[in-house]
Amino acid sequence: MPSQKQLMKGAEAIAEAAIRAGCRHFFGYPITPQNEIPEYMSKRLPEVGGVYLQAESEVASINMIFGGASTGARVLTSSSSPGVSLMSEGASYLVGAELPAVIVNIMRGGPGLGDIAPSQSDWSMMTKGWGHGDKRYISLCPATVQEAVDMMSLAFDLAEKYRNPVVLLGDGLLGQMMEPVIFPALSEIAPEQSWAARGKLATRPRVIVRSLYLDPAELERHVDHLYDKFARMEREEPRAETWMCDDEPPVLVCAFGTVARIAKTAIGKLRGEGLRVGLWRPMTAWPFPVESLQKAAATSDRLLSIEMNKGQMVEDIRAVIGHDKPVGFWGRSGGMVPTVDEMMNAIRGQFANA
Amino acid sequence: MAYHDVVMAGFGGQGLMAIGKLLAKAAMDEGRHVTWLPSYGPEMRGGTANCVVVVDDEPIGSPSVEHAQAAIVMNRPSLDKFEDTLATGGLLVINTSLIAEPVHRADLTTVLVPANDIAEAEGSPKAANMVMLGAYVAHCGVVSAASIEHAIEVSYVGAKKAYGEANLRAFRRGLAS
Predict the structure, then answer these.
(1) How do the domains of chain A map onto residue ranges?
(2) Of A13, A35, A187, B37, which has the most beta carbons under 10 Å away?
(3) Per-residue pLDDT tens for A128-146?
(4) Distance of CA B6 to the CA centre of its chain
(5) ipTM score of complex
(6) C-alpha angle with apex B54: B53 to B56, nearest 5 degrees?
(7) Quick one: A6-236 is in which CATH superfamily?
């Protein structure tokens, strides 16, 4: 049934979008500010013949994901920052065993137990530090509830395309806010995968799902194979939006997720004051959209990264821009959401520096 | 009206989130862009709660607002919190059943509504939020009253139908207040 526009909370919309994308298995453990995802799944999955299971911990959740993914099913778990930290070991196993899965991280303030307010302080964890070993995860960063819905089906497709876990990286603001959304039609359960372990039959070869390669030479070949996939992701999967850059503004603001939409309001007002500012927004935290950034930054004099953390994405930006031009940072942390006014002041400061 | 934003604040349980959703639904049904953002935190029943609704003809950037154009306040702590932050010349709708304090700012358009008294007289003491919503829509016009009424009708169905009818009556009393 193609659906019409409906008003929905980000977290619930993400859950429904997963079901529309063919996900019929959810394993998770509650944590604010994303409890509406498991709550919605617990009610909705049985209606479509799916399985909702509340695990005893995040460590259990991610290992249930490993088991479910091994059978070729489209599996989902969701959590928030501290819970996602706990999942890191299992995430690495998923990469090693080449299993597709989607993990939603609705970030909250950290470190430690921190608070339950919106944050973007897991950028570095998701792009570099999540789990041990040589591994990568595509991380999608929606800014609106509709984009989160659209990215859920993309996440499952990419996970299967590469046989690798994919992360949907949002924050408490996106999880809690309501916006009108349109869903795609309900899709059937994913076709049987040749690599899935579904029981040895005469018609089917034996399948072993593993991340253990005791022979170092064999493991090196395996890791090389994984890196061939990661290289392909870096070529094919970077996504970014460039906004208000047609007049080659001297100041380029860089922001992702909900901060980028607050930045759009701030930039719109500054444009009203006659200040030429543009926005560059990565929609994939990894693979980092290097070429898009280089293109957007080519005509600017200086960049300002605005984040709900102490400066994480700015490290990736500096790695691309180098010493060619100044790359500044401004942000709030601890779960404080930047206001439009203070963001405008931070951007005005870039013109004062010029 | 192109861009509009409003904060709705009061005690948890007074139904501020609910009237925010009704406004958001009405705006969506009128083809506008809209966001609804709740305050969320380690709250408890009887604590303060608020939500912010932004309506625009263009896609909405920030869903959070520092200086709202309008405020619906249903208890004293919310008046204390939001009177000072309202935009210059803003609209302030006050529940005088629970708020005896005067408004200090002279630049605001202030609408005084004894919402709990009206709702009780109507036989629906829990529908004070709908009275406030009605008074707000009457003075603001961001959406039509008909759109709100439709949103109420489709939001309270089945076992909740009686609440919907009571809410509709309370909303209309607010419109006329």
Answers:
(1) 6-236, 241-353
(2) A13
(3) 999 999 999 999 999 999 9
(4) 8
(5) 0.95
(6) 150
(7) Thiamin diphosphate (ThDP)-binding fold, Pyr/PP domains (3.40.50.970)
CATH of the domain at B17: 3.40.920.10
Asked if CATH classification 3.40.50.920 holds for the domain at A241-353, the reply, yes or no, is yes
The residue of chain B nearest to residue A265, with distances taken between CA atoms, is: B61
Looking at chain B from residue 64 to 103, which residues have their Cβ under 8 Å from any Cβ of chain A? Answer: 64, 66-67
Q: What's the domain count of chain B?
A: 1
Identical fold at A6-236 and A241-353? yes
Cβ separation of A7 and B64 shorter than 8 Å?
Answer: no
**Given an 8 Å threshold on Cβ–Cβ distance, is A179 in contact with B36?**
yes
Are residues B24 and A116, on separate chains, in Cβ contact within 8 Å? no
Q: Is B127 on the interface with A (CB under 8 A)?
A: no
Chain A closest-CA separation from residue B121 CA (Å): 33
Q: Is A113 at the interface with chain B, CB within 8 A?
A: no
Alpha carbons within 13 angstroms on the beta-carbon side of residue A34 total 30
B35 touches chain A (CB under 8 A): yes
pLDDT digits (tens, 9 = 90+) for B87-96: 999 999 999 9
Residue pairs between chains A and B whose CB atoms are closer than 8 Å: 63
- Model-level pTM? 0.96
C-alpha A310/C-alpha B105 separation (Å) is 38
CB of A172 less than 8 A from some CB of B: yes
Q: Residue B64's domain spans which residues?
A: 4-175
Residues of A in contact with B147 (CB under 8 A): none
